[in-house]
Amino acid sequence: MNAKLLKKIEELTLHLIAKDKQYNQQKQQLEKQAAELMDIKQMLLLNKK
Predict the structure, then answer these.
(1) In angstroms, how far apart are the furthest CA atoms of the chain?
(2) CA dist., res. 31 & res. 22, Å (int)
(3) First to last CA, the chain
C-alpha cells in the first residue's frame, strides 16, 4: 500500500513540475508579446503625428 502511495506521489510531483515549467514558458511568452504590443502601439502613435 505504501509503495503505491509513494508511486502516486512521485507521479503527481513530476506532473506538477511539468505544469510549472509550462506555466513559466507561457508567462515568458506573454510578457514578450505584451512588450511587442507596446512597441507597436508606440510606433503607431509616432506615425500619427
Answers:
(1) 72
(2) 14
(3) 72
SS3 1: coil
pTM for the whole structure: 0.76
d(CA 18, CA 4): 21
Cell of 10: 512521485
The residue type found at 37 is L
Over residues 1-49, the pLDDT tens digits come to 899 999 999 999 999 999 999 999 999 999 999 999 999 999 999 988 6
